Every structure is written in C-alpha cells, then in structure tokens.
Amino acid sequence: MIVGITLAAGLSRRFGSDDKLLAPLWGQAVASYSAKAMLDAPFDARVVVLSNPELIPIFQGFSVARPLLGAAAQSQSLIAGVLMARDLGANHIVVSLADMPLVTSADLVQISDMTRRFGGACAVMGAKRLPPAGFSRVNFAALLSLSGDQGAGALLRVFGDESLIALDPQRLIDIDVEADLIALGPYKSQSGL
C-alpha cells in the first residue's frame, strides 16, 4: 500500500502574519497545487498534516493528522504523518511539502516507483537532497525517532545515487517569503500551468 503524505503544518514565520499556504498563486491557494498533485497520483491513501483548520477544505480526500503535541517542528509533523500512514497499512510513503506548488503528480509517481525499487528515493538539486521523498516501511522506525526541525535530511543522505531524482530545479522552489510568489509569476506561462 502506497500512502502519500503532505506536510502543511508549518508556522510561515518568514512569510509574515498570514498563512503562506493560503496565499493566492495564479488564482488559487498555494497549498491547492500540492493537494492536486497528491490527489492525481495513483496512491492508495493520502494524509495531510496540518495545524490550521482553514486548510482542511483544500485537502478533501485526505486523512487529517495534527503535529504531535501541537508542535510545528518538521520532525513532529513528519512523525504524525508516518504514524497515520503506518496505521493505514502503508508499505511505503511519499512525502511532499505543501509549500512546493510546482511538484507534479508525475514527480510523485517517479519518487514512488524509485522507492519501490530501492527502498527510498528523493529529489536532488546539485548536491542538495530534498523532498519530495519516498521511504519504505523499513525506514519508518528511523522516521519515528526524529526530533527537532531537521526532518528526514539525515535519512536522505544515506540513499544511494540510484535513488536520487534530478527534477527541474524550478519545480523544487518552495514558498518561504512573499517574494517567492512574485518570482513564480513567469513560470506559469513557461510551464503551461
């Protein structure tokens, strides 16, 4: 069983007082693009980890998890998602971030396929390994032991080169500040989104 997990519980501190995932991008909320990519991927189930209830309508069709102890640390969000995916019977998971609106369902499927073959996979940009990422069930214990705000970076570093997927670097842009939204403007016309 393949379970997709979208992490959407960050505090958006660098974005200002508003939730960046609700900010408008090409006429829709930023989070709607990652939700659609996950829904369009042929996964058996989908989980979203969120802390802002205003995001729930965007993630229709997802099981909703909350970060452990209400914490916004990335590790606590990831743990909450992994626990729910494990309870759903996941053999492997594909993790995406809700603030990466240009990641496509095809990207998620590629991560899933590579995870099935190699036990784990992730995107790579130069020397940097980053989400989206996939983990087989054998990695769940390590994911559940994470702490702090580093997420699964240490696990990604042990993936072999065959597990690394070089996606278009522009599609790996995440929204951290309002200027990131402005920078994405021209990409829509180039990509046909």
Write the CATH homologous superfamily: Spore Coat Polysaccharide Biosynthesis Protein SpsA, Chain A
Shape assignment: globular
Strand content: 15-25%
CATH class: Alpha Beta
SS field, number of helical segments: 6
The number of domains: 1
Features:
33% helix; alpha/beta; 6 helices; two-stranded antiparallel sheet; Spore Coat Polysaccharide Biosynthesis Protein SpsA, Chain A; 193 residues; globular
Describe how the helices and strands are arranged.
Elements: E1 2-8, E2 24-25, E3 28-29, H1 30-40, E4 45-50, E5 63-65, H2 74-88, E6 92-97, H3 105-118, E7 120-125, E8 128-136, H4 140-144, H5 153-156, E9 164-165, H6 178-191
Parallel strand pairs: 1-4, 1-6, 4-5, 7-9
Antiparallel strand pairs: 2-3, 6-8, 7-8
Briefly summarize what is shown.
With 193 residues, the protein is α/β, with parallel strands linked by helices.
Describe this structure in words.
The chain is α/β, with parallel strands linked by helices. The protein has one domain (2-191): Spore Coat Polysaccharide Biosynthesis Protein SpsA, Chain A. The protein is built from 6 helices and 9 strands. It has helices at 30-40, 74-88, 105-118, 140-144, 153-156, 178-191; strands at residues 2-8, 24-25, 28-29, 45-50, 63-65, 92-97, 120-125, 128-136, 164-165. The strands form 2 sheets. It has a 7-stranded mixed β-sheet with strand order 5-4-1-6-8-7-9, sandwiched between helices. A hairpin with a 2-residue loop joins strand 7 and strand 8. It is globular, with a radius of gyration of 15 Å. The two termini are 30 Å apart.
